[in-house]
Structure formats: C-alpha cells, structure tokens
TrEMBL record:
Keywords: Hydrolase, Metal-binding, Zinc. This is 5-methylthioadenosine/S-adenosylhomocysteine deaminase. Substrate binds at E91, R143, R154, H181, E211, D297. Residues 54-400 form the Amidohydrolase-related domain. Zn(2+) binds at H62, H64, H208, D297. One of its GO terms (molecular function) is 5'-methylthioadenosine deaminase activity. Belongs to the metallo-dependent hydrolases superfamily. MTA/SAH deaminase family. It comes from Brevibacillus formosus. Its cofactor is Zn(2+). Binds 1 zinc ion per subunit. The keyword Metal-binding applies. It catalyses: S-adenosyl-L-homocysteine + H2O + H(+) = S-inosyl-L-homocysteine + NH4(+); S-methyl-5'-thioadenosine + H2O + H(+) = S-methyl-5'-thioinosine + NH4(+). HAMAP family: MTA_SAH_deamin.
C-alpha cells in the first residue's frame, strides 16, 4: 500500500455546491481515500500545504502537444496560411523521436502549469503514448487522420493500432479515440467509414469543427451545408461520444443539432483569439445543454499550454461578447477546465473533482504571493489572478510529478536540449 497525506490546505473540490474548506487529503494507491478536516492517518509521505489551495488538476481537452516544438515559429498568420505554409511543411520533417521530445516538452509545460490530463491529436502516436507513460501524466490519444491524398488506409491502420495497443496503459492513464481531423480534410466516404466504426466499437471521436469563416465557405461550396450539418448528416451525433474542438461558427440551428449529443465541445479561446477566428457561442451551447470544456490547441498556435490563460480568456471573451460581466463567472470557467473537460475525455468517473474514490489527480497552488492576497474568494483568485507559475505541486494517480516547482519524473535539462536541437532542424529554411 502506497500512501500520501496532504495536510492543512484550502480544498476546492469542484463538486457542485461545495464551498472551499480547510482540510487534509489522504491518498492510498493512487486514489483519494479520505478528504476532510483533521485526517489522522499514517502515510509514507506527508506534504504540508499551508497557504496552498488543493484543487482538481486542470484538463486540457484539445491539444497537439508535440507542436510545442513549433512554438513561436509562425505567428500572426491566418489559420489556413499558418497550417498549409508553415505547420504542415515542418510536420512533414518530424520523426518519431521528434514527436517524443516535442510531446515531452509539451507535457513538461502542462505539468508545470497544473494540467494533469490532456486530449491529443497527432501523428506517431506511439511516441506520444510513450511520452505520456514516461512522464506520469494522463491523456486521451488520437491519431489525427486527413483523407485528402488517398483512401487513408495507412492512417486508419495506425489509428486502430494505437487503440488496440495503448488503451488502458499506465494503470489506466492512457485512453484513446478516433480522430478524423476536420470536415474540410475528411470527405464523406472515409468520414462515414470512421463514424460507423466508432459507433460499432463504441470508440469516442475527436475532430476539429467550425473553426473559421473559411471552413464554413469551403463546406458550403462543396456540400451546400454548414460544417455542423455536414457532420450531423453523416451520423456523427447519433450513437457515440464526440469531442468537438473549437466550434466557433454555429448558427442557431447548428446549436440545435448538437443538443443531446454525447461528449461535447472543447473551447479553445486563446487560439481562437490569436488566429482571429472569432468568439465561440459558449453561453448558447451551455444553455442548449451541451457539455463545454476547455483546451489550448497546440503551442504552435496558442504559444502557451497554460490553462489558467484559457480560463481567463474564456470568461473575458464571453463577458465582452454579451456586454455583460455576469456571463461565465469564475466558478463556471473553473468547472469548464476541470470536470466539464473530464466529461469530454470520458474520464469524469475517475477525475475532475476531488472526491473519495476518485483517482488522485490534483494540484497545489501557492497563495503566498502578492497577486493572490488577500484570500477573500478562492474561485475568483484562481480564475482571474492565478497563472500556471503559481502551481507548486502536480499529482497524477497519486504520483508526484512536480513538487516545489521541481519536476520529479522529467529531466528538464535533457528535455530542453533535445527539444531545442530538434526544433531548429524542423524549421530551418521554412
Ligand atoms: C493530423 S494530426 C493534427 C493536425 O492538426 C493540425 N492543427 C493544429 N492546430 C490546428 C487547428 O487549430 N486547426 C486545424 N488543424 C490544426 C496540426 O498541425 C496537425 O497537422
Ligand atoms: Zn487543434
């Protein structure tokens, strides 16, 4: 039996209706065994967490972690130019080892800023899975599939290999999905094949949707439909869990098509702002009963994987859009980054709130700083003042991945050296 006791912290469980309280958390074999005030239990290790808040780890519901190698390589471009002229040529040079070290760099940033799980869509996914395994983080992995050049048979085979070989690995830390990339890269025939397979085997789907005006124009010109209508007509929302990334451009009837869907939407506010895509209809989706979580997208576009930046951007953008500061209050934004994102990854029975019986995926945030005092309202401090740099400790499955801001499972100097050399080679001459 392996035990860890966290003592004397303010606990924000993120269970609806529960207020923060001063207490302790006892972790046994990776799960929260007890949570409450004055727990007197023996433990292999004790963390004294005075002046800290314990909250569920943040869950990044849409990422391409390996794109951390392409951070600050191509900024201030329109999405299609950014993708076609910069990202795809650099990605064409990426080896399996590049993806391993790029993903590890992304994971290092996530651990350092309080993210304990992420959903990833990329290539060389066995390298991504290995990086997840080695670092101790949790992830839902998807082989991204573009079907423009051929029938996509090789990509589909890789997607199924990922699912067959890695689902459940790392004591359940790795889960998998099928990832057709986007409506504009997936024609009806192969996309329908993926959807039918997903429904038959009950494999969740992960796809980009309605990110730009240009995407809407492309799909309108080809199929005389909105991107959402296109996916709906192919049966995507009938019988399986779907993680939709971005979902910026929806009309009222598109929102109605998503009502009752399994899964939901990963909102990516910083990427949407930076690429000038628009402001997603978060309030309308939530009012329609759609689950809305939060993600960063890759650092190639968002430039940072700090979920605290996403939390701020999400709430500010909705307040601005509706001209109303009461829209998306602090606690609702924190919920999007924790339990709502956990629902999108289909792991909310295990993580996303701090409750006895759940996996111990949690973070400690150090409040002993000028920008986090006085401590009057913890959710407001976390949503509006905190940054990823305020995270002191990151724990996944009861394992400490960062403590007092020191990585426990990664060798930072090695990660930095490998990532720098590989990034320079990837972008040379582009
Ligand atoms: C085939 S693997 C995933 C693929 O997606 C690309 N990508 C990264 N960010 C975005 C985005 O915001 N919209 C569309 N596609 C994106 C990434 O470069 C990979 O090629
Ligand atoms: Zn993306």
């Amino acid at each position: 039996m392996k035990t860890l006791l966290i003592k004397d912290c303010m606990i924000l469980t993120m269970v609806e209706g529960e207020k923060p309280f001063l207490g302790d958390i006892w972790i046994v074999d990776g799960r929260i065994a007890k949570i409450g005030s004055s727990i007197e239990e023996e433990a292999d290790r004790v963390i004294l967490a005075k002046n800290m808040v314990a909250m569920p780890g943040l869950i990044n519901a849409h990422n391409h972690a390996s794109m951390s190698l392409l951070r600050a390589f191509s900024d201030d471009l329109k999405l299609m130019d950014w993708l076609d002229k910069k990202m795809l040529p650099a990605e064409a040079r990426m080896t399996r080892e590049d993806v391993y070290w790029g993903t590890t760099l992304g994971i290092a940033e996530m651990i350092a800023s309080g993210t304990t799980a992420f959903a990833d869509m990329y290539v060389h996914m066995d390298a991504v899975a290995q990086a997840v395994l080695d670092s101790g983080i949790r992830a839902s992995l998807t082989r991204g599939m573009v079907f423009l050049e051929d029938d996509g048979g090789r990509r589909m085979a890789e997607a199924l290999d990922l699912i067959d070989n890695w689902t459940g690995a790392g004591d359940g830390r790795i889960t998998t999905m099928l990832g057709p990339h986007a409506p504009y890269t997936c024609p009806p025939k192969p996309l329908q094949g993926v959807i039918e397979l997903a429904c038959k085997r009950q494999i969740p789907l992960h796809i980009h949707l309605a990110e730009t005006v240009e995407e809407g124009e492309k799909i309108r010109a080809k199929y005389n439909q909105t991107p959402t209508e296109y996916l709906h007509e192919l049966g995507m929302f009938h019988d399986t869990h779907v993680l939709l990334a971005h979902v910026v451009h929806l009309n009222e009837s598109d929102v109605a098509l998503l009502r009752g869907m399994r899964g939901g939407v990963a909102h990516n506010p910083v990427s949407n702002l930076k690429l000038g895509c628009g402001i997603a209809p978060v309030r309308e989706l939530i009012e329609a009963g759609v689950t809305v979580g939060m993600g960063t997208d890759g650092a190639g576009s968002a430039t940072t994987l700090d979920m605290f930046a996403e939390i701020k951007a999400a709430t500010w953008m909705q307040k601005l859009k509706h001209g109303d500061p009461t829209v998306l209050p602090a606690e609702a934004a924190l919920r999007m980054a924790t339990i709502e994102s956990a629902k999108l990854l289909a792991i909310d029975h295990e993580v996303g709130t701090l409750e006895a019986g759940k996996r111990a995926d949690l973070i400690l945030i150090d409040l002993d700083k000028p920008h986090l005092q006085p401590v009057l309202d913890i959710p407001a401090l976390l949503a509006y003042s905190a940054t990823g740099a305020d995270v002191d400790t990151t724990i996944v499955n009861g394992e400490i991945l960062m403590h007092q801001r020191q990585f426990q499972t990664l060798h930072w100097e090695e990660v930095k050296r490998e990532a720098t050399a590989r990034a320079r080679r990837l972008v040379e001459g582009l």
